[in-house]
Amino acid sequence: MIPIVKIMTSNEMKKFISLRFISPVLLFMFLMACGSSVNQHLNTVSNDAPAMDTISVFILKAVTLIKSVELPGELIPYEQTDLYAKVSGFVKTMNVDIGDHVHKGQTLAIIEAPEINTQFVQAESSIQAAKAKWTASKDNYGRLFNASQSPSPGIVAPVDLISSRNQMEADSASYEAARQQAKAYKEVSGYLYITSPFDGVITARKTDPGALVGATTMLLTVQYNKTLRLRVAVPEIYVAAASKVPNIQFSIDAYPEQKFNGILTRKTETIDPVTRTELWEFEVNNSNHMLKAGVFANARIAIERNGQSFVIPASAIATTLERKFVIKVMQGVAYWVDINQGINTDNGVEIFGNLKAGDTLVLKSTDERKPGSKGFWKVQ
């Protein structure tokens, strides 16, 4: 069988070719329009859904706060006194100079005041005269009293006996007054000798022989420096945490690589309202005389809380004009918890508040994260 072939005219051929090429173009344009509508719909859905941030959080743990803090201190003599002349006179001799070691009771200087010696001699003479007068009146009263005891009445008149007794008592009082006056002059004459009140070293000499001195003139300064006092002003925030410190180590600029020890001996038991510190005093053995009174020291004190504490990164604390708080996460929701700040440590900041071990806190808190907000919480 012979196939029948239809021959198209030129117009029919052009129409066929147009349909073959136009249909795919129309189909492609239709698909692109549908895709654009789908994308617009997905973008609309995405914009309507709320965005959820990924927020870093951590689990709160209770720790024992241990810290070592360095505080400035000052070394002072265990005992120190300035010696003054108690009476007016001229310095007769000066037996010591700066750097001399002295012992208790040693004569350091002698003051010359002739009028005081004269008064003492006069007082001694007055004692002898008063004593002689009292002895005579006492003997006279004794004789009259013995005579009055005679069996023969009227030998001694009662008025004479009373008068003799009164005279004896008056002379006795005068004698005692003279003795006390002489004692006072003797004590004043003792002020002419300046002695050391304790063992120590002369650290200052303010006058020389021949100088006129008085009650307000300082002559010498004596220090006992075999034991020194290290005084450290401890800030109020550390007072409770460092209350059990038995001793400390400290250094001075003269020996920067050497450590010295001090034993805690006393506290002022009060906070200075100006510096907000409590003064602690440590005793330092200085028998080798390496340390010098008056130098500044860097004291290192160990601090330890008696109970458990919470130490968190500083970034977890948010501060506003009204409050200081952390952000706590419970069941996926953020809550603000007010806190009080304690001691700063190398690991973070000590805090106190309505918190417990195991709570979840935001690592970087800010007041822009409002209470009740939600997010994706990622534990660090």
Average pLDDT number? 82
| Beta-strand fraction estimate | 35-45%
Characterize the quaternary organization of these chains.
single chain
**Radius of gyration over alpha carbons?**
51 Å
How many β-strand stretches? 21
Strand pairing plus helix content: what structural class? alpha+beta
Number of helices: 4
Span between termini:
86 Å
Principal-axes geometry comes out as elongated
SSE order, one letter for each helix or strand: HEEEEEEHHEEEEHEEEEEEEEEEE
Low-confidence stretches: 1-10, 13-28, 34-50
Main sheet?
9 strands, mixed
The helix fraction, in percent, is: 25-40%
Give an overview in words:
There is one protein chain. With 380 residues, the protein is an alpha+beta fold. Helix content is 29%, strand content 38%. The chain is built from four helices and 21 strands. The strands form three sheets. Strands 1, 2, 15, 16, 17, 18, 19, 20 and 21 form a nine-stranded mixed sheet that branches. The protein has a six-stranded antiparallel beta barrel with strand order 3-10-13-12-11-14. It has a four-stranded antiparallel sheet with strand order 7-6-4-9, with no helix packed on it. The radius of gyration is 51 Å and the shape is elongated. It starts with 9 loop residues before the first helix and ends with a strand. The relative contact order is 0.17. The N terminus is likely disordered.
